[in-house]
Design goal:
single chain, about 280 residues, alpha/beta, TIM Barrel, two-stranded antiparallel ribbon, globular, binds nicotinamide-adenine-dinucleotide
Length: about 280
């Protein structure tokens, strides 16, 4: 079986570049599809407390028979749990649901600038890493200013920033900033949640040229530009198809053509909330 390439974090740990995400997957379905993802070859799973399926992911890990050192599990701290003590408590609750002793990666799910607790929350993640409960700490949905503030106020640079990122919204500027600080960029909604992106003629032409599917071309683009990428599907054939994107290699012309699909200059392309202003309960 082909295994995903790994990328190295600024803390020396590594992450499989291609992973599998389980947003909007119910707990018992999560157990089934995560087992299928492991069977397809995925070794990196992305969940979050708010997805309500950490327990299902935990049961899948147990059923798979894979050892902790063979897999990479991420979960995220929900907004309502931000703050130093509440983060430590929420972490233990997530670990109980996952059934794990040590976590590979813990992320602050959203910056929540209005709430303004993310620096204290980050200090709790630093403490969890010091205690050895979590190997790697990072953030999700952080702006350049938010990242800079964490660095200035704690001296600890996040290992990763997981943000919305797909060809229609390719985050070129933020990726460059992350790289300049030694922060990996992870792409959420990497397929643009399916639909229009996968039906576009540019992706279709590149897919035909490589004998690949549109989803595989988009995943191969993420891998080529250096993103950690976590496509989701609950359909077994698509889970396998997405994993097999590892065998698709795009040339520079393909990568440039897909880079050109970004719509952010027109103020478009973003599907989800803007982390600079979003304020979820
Ligand atoms: P995605 O871009 O991965 O798209 C998933 C959808 O694309 C599927 O539901 C299906 O409709 C379609 N699809 C998948 N494989 C396909 C294939 N081979 N052919 C055709 N269509 C296909 O969207 P997502 O689930 O939003 O994002 C992926 C993961 O990112 C999530 O599961 C979650 O783990 C993470 N995420 C994180 C955040 C965050 O705030 N940190 C937000 C959203 C998602």
């Amino acid at each position: 079986m082909t295994f995903s390439p790994v990328l190295t974090f600024n803390d020396g740990n590594t992450i499989p570049q291609l992973g599998y995400g389980v947003w909007q997957v119910e707990d018992d379905i999560a157990e089934k599809v995560v087992v299928q993802a492991f069977e397809a070859g995925f070794r990196h799973i992305d969940t979050a407390k708010i997805y309500g399926n950490e327990a299902g992911v935990g049961r899948a890990i147990e059923r798979s028979g894979l050892k902790p050192e063979e897999i990479f599990i991420t979960t995220k701290l929900w907004n309502a749990d931000q703050g130093y003590e509440s983060t430590l408590k929420a972490f233990e609750e997530s670990m109980d649901r996952l059934g794990l002793e040590t976590l590979d990666m813990y992320l602050i799910h959203w910056m929540q600038p209005k709430q303004d607790k993310y620096v204290d929350t980050w200090k709790a993640l630093i403490e969890l890493q010091k205690q050895g409960r979590v190997k790697t700490i990072g953030v999700s949905n952080f702006t350049k200013a938010g990242l800079q503030r964490l660095i200035d106020e704690t001296g600890v640079v996040p290992a990763i920033n997981q943000v919305e990122l797909h060809p229609f919204f390719n985050q070129a500027e933020l990726r460059e900033f992350n790289a300049s600080k030694g922060i990996l960029t992870q792409a959420w909604s990497p397929l643009g949640q399916g639909g229009e992106l996968l039906e576009s003629s540019i992706i279709g032409q590149i897919a035909a040229k490589h004998g690949a599917t549109p989803a595989q071309v988009v995943i191969a683009w993420h891998l080529a530009v250096g993103n950690v990428v976590i496509p989701k599907s609950v359909t077994e054939s698509r889970i396998r198809e997405n994993y097999a994107a590892l065998d698709v290699s795009l040339d520079e012309t393909d990568v440039q053509a897909i880079n050109g699909m970004d719509k952010s200059a027109e103020g478009a392309g973003r599907i989800g909330a803007d982390p600079a202003v979003s304020d979820f309960a």
